[in-house]
Amino acid sequence: MPVAELERHQGSVNAIAWAPQSCKHICSGGDDAQALIWELPTMAGPNGIDPLSVYSAGSEINQLQWSASLPDWIGIAFANKMQLLRV
C-alpha cells in the first residue's frame, strides 16, 4: 500500500530522483515537459500534495538526476538537450 501518491503531472512520469542530501525531497519529470520538485510531508492533506517548485522544459523530460556533490543542482534531459537547473 502506498504511503504517498504524487499526481500533478499532466502526462506520463518518465523519471524520478531522490535528493541525495534530503530524505523528504524528490524530483519527477514527464511527458508534460515539467520537472516537479516535491517536499514530502509526514502526512498528505485531503487534496494531495502540491509540488514545491515547477520547471517547464521545451519538450517531454526523458531523464533527470540530482547532483550528489552539489545538492541544489538537477540535470534534466529532453529532446536533443540537457539543462542544468539550480533549485
TrEMBL record:
<keyword id="KW-0853">WD repeat</keyword>
<dbReference type="InterPro" id="IPR045159">
    <property type="entry name" value="DCAF7-like"/>
</dbReference>
<dbReference type="InterPro" id="IPR001680">
    <property type="entry name" value="WD40_rpt"/>
</dbReference>
<keyword id="KW-0677">Repeat</keyword>
<dbReference type="InterPro" id="IPR019775">
    <property type="entry name" value="WD40_repeat_CS"/>
</dbReference>
<dbReference type="InterPro" id="IPR036322">
    <property type="entry name" value="WD40_repeat_dom_sf"/>
</dbReference>
<feature type="repeat" description="WD">
    <location>
        <begin position="6"/>
        <end position="40"/>
    </location>
</feature>
<protein>
    <submittedName>
        <fullName>Uncharacterized protein</fullName>
    </submittedName>
</protein>
<dbReference type="InterPro" id="IPR015943">
    <property type="entry name" value="WD40/YVTN_repeat-like_dom_sf"/>
</dbReference>
